[in-house]
DNA sequence: CTTACATCCTGATTGC
DNA sequence: TGCAATCAGGATGTAA
């Protein structure tokens, strides 16, 4: 389940391996992703050089020379792997490899997504920030713009659960189910609390926990809970540092109380009933 | 505006 | 053991 730390980790690796390479050709498998791959995709991308990789929320932005940019979202089962030429490079797997970019050093960049909740979309550079995907996004959680004052203002009067607020991309962009649970554990606040009833002191703890958790996860190259792999096929190492996510019934690392799992906003939400109030 | 919930999809897990 | 049913979840669309 790639969230901001996984996409950022992916970006950092690909900056070293894929930036500067020219895309010689594109192979397209299944076009029906979250958004259908357009007809003109190959023509617009072939022959272009990858000049920069950036990230907005959970979107990876692949900037090409010329007029276009590729907007990539991994959904929940997507991956973008960089495969060097050689015996173990792997064949194109038409079941779930949906896009394959052949690069000028004989390596290949492959977008694979079994559940097809992700997408790869071609956008004109100037129109990027106005695209449906990016235009409504809230601030980056690692930016100055996201702080306790901002969060308090957004939480005021809201009856939605605080966890839903953290996962609402219009409020703050890039936090998903795993890190929302971890952030709230660190802040000592139950995921079910109504946002408008969370005290100022608790809001400050949450706002402070956000960058701590996200930066730690980026430092561990993300979390592999089930299937996430980075561009080299490596799993993230943050799974061993999860305090509550996926630990239902297991003892809290702080107080030994069994971790509970409740559904909040149709998502599994893990918390310690003693440490989180 | 806000909230709640169904929908897309298929591999993994659970239940009988 | 085998098969069927259920679960998981990011973003979006619709309904209330």
Could you please describe the fold and organization of this structure?
25% of the residues lie in helices and 21% in strands. The protein has a four-stranded antiparallel β-sheet. Strands 2-3-4-8 form a four-stranded antiparallel β-sheet. A two-stranded antiparallel ribbon has the order 9-10. The protein has two domains: 4-130, N-terminal domain of MutM-like DNA repair proteins; 148-271, Helicase, Ruva Protein, domain 3 (Orthogonal Bundle), CATH 1.10.8. By secondary structure, it is of the alpha+beta class. The protein binds a DNA duplex (16 and 16 nucleotides) through loops.
CATH class of the largest domain: Alpha Beta
Going across the major beta sheet, what is the strand order?
Answer: 1-6-7-5
Low-confidence stretches: none
Can you tell me the CATH architecture of the largest domain? Answer: Alpha-Beta Barrel
Globally, the shape reads: globular
What share of residues are in beta strands?
15-25%
The beta-strand count equals 10
Q: What is the C-alpha radius of gyration, as a whole number of Å?
A: 20 Å
CATH topology of the largest domain, what is it called? N-terminal domain of MutM-like DNA repair proteins
Q: Alpha-carbon distance between the termini?
A: 27 Å
Report the helical percentage: 10-25%
Quote the average pLDDT.
91
Under CATH, the homologous superfamily of the largest domain reads MutM-like, N-terminal
Could you spell the SSE succession in H and E letters? Answer: HEHEEEEEEEHHHHHEE
SS class: alpha+beta
- The tally of domains stands at 2
How would you sum up the major sheet?
Answer: 4 strands, antiparallel
The total count of helices amounts to 7
């Amino acid at each position: 389940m790639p969230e901001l730390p996984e996409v950022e980790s992916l970006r950092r690796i690909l900056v070293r391996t894929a930036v500067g390479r020219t895309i010689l050709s594109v192979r397209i498998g299944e076009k029906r992703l979250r958004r259908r791959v357009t007809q003109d995709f190959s023509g617009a991308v072939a022959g272009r050089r990858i000049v920069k990789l950036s990230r907005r929320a959970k979107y990876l932005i692949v900037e090409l020379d010329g007029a276009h940019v590729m907007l990539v979202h991994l959904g929940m089962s997507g991956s973008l792997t960089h495969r060097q030429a050689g015996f173990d490079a792997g064949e194109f797997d038409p079941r779930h490899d949906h896009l394959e970019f052949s690069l000028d050093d004989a390596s290949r960049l492959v977008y694979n997504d079994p559940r097809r909740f992700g997408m790869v979309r071609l956008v004109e550079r100037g129109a990027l920030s106005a695209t449906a995907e990016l235009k409504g996004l809230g601030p980056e959680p690692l930016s100055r713009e996201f702080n306790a004052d901002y969060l308090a203002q957004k939480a005021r009067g809201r009856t939605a659960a605080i966890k839903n607020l953290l996962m609402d991309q219009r409020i703050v962009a890039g936090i998903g189910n795993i890190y929302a649970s971890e952030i709230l554990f660190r802040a000592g606040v139950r995921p079910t609390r109504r946002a408008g009833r969370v005290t100022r002191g608790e809001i400050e703890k949450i706002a402070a926990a956000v960058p701590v958790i996200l930066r730690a996860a980026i430092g561990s190259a993300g979390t592999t809970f089930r299937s996430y792999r980075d561009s080299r096929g490596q799993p993230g190492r943050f799974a061993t540092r999860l305090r509550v996510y996926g630990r239902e019934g297991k003892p809290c690392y702080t107080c030994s109380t069994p971790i509970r799992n409740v559904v909040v906003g149709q998502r599994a939400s893990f918390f310690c009933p003693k440490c989180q109030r």
